[in-house]
Target: Amino acid ABC transporter ATP-binding protein, PAAT family
Amino acid sequence: MNNPPVPAVRLAGVMKRFGDFAALNDVNLEIAAGEKVVICGPSGSGKSTLIRCINHIEQHDGGQIVVNGIKLDRSADSIAQVRSVTGMVFQNFNLFPHMTILDNCTIAPRTTLKLSRAEAEARAMELLAKVRIGDQAGKYPSQLSGGQQQRAAIARSLCMQPGIMLFDEPTSALDPEMVKEVLETMKTLAGEGMTMICVTHEMGFAREVADRVVFMDRGSIMEQGRPDEFFGNPQTDRARQFLSQII
Ligand code: ADP
Ligand code: MG
Model:
């Protein structure tokens, strides 16, 4: 008998409180390796908190989170192991402003993975070329457009060779003409079999790329389904109301 495949991410009964406020309230979610999941929902519904708990930027305070079979148990070891298999892309890029794009991409591979400078730079240049900003490697973040900065941030994450990419509204801070180039980069990654969890309100991207859409409200998953099911026939009033506001 074959063992069932280990899910990329499994959340069971996850709770996260800020003081008395439950930002996540009994969240259960299992994501298969290679699956692409879009998380949407109103502002304040817990989307960022959810993906930040997956790589322990926030610490959950109830339930279980298991990533690639590694249980997040607050030990430095489990946190380091989970971070080594997850990449995170933020709304505001979070590049190091005082470093060139190339140095942004090589610092973690050199310090954490102990790659030589030459190895780290070769990997970085390959990935910067892949996100089509190979010619920007020597510049500082402030010299790039928002779309270029976000693609640099994606390349920086990929330099650590994560199996799971977490995106938190990666296009929300971009001017409209730059949204497409970042979504194209994300589609390329999706086509290569990356496990992706994307908080986004780009519903065209969700329809085209997502295997599953998860709708959150007030710290809970209200419903989830294939994009055609979710968009075509939402099951809850909250989802219908949300969709009527954004589409
Ligand atoms: P979303 O990403 O869906 O907009 P968040 O996950 O950022 O929502 O936030 C969910 C709720 O938790 C919000 O009400 C927010 O104000 C609250 N929250 C998030 N982070 C903190 C924090 N560090 N301290 C206190 N409250 C927080
Ligand atoms: Mg958020």
In short: The longest strand covers residues 21-31. Residues 176-191 form the longest helix (16 residues). The pocket of adenosine-5'-diphosphate (ligand 1) is lined by residues 18, 23, 41, 43-49 (CB under 6 Å).
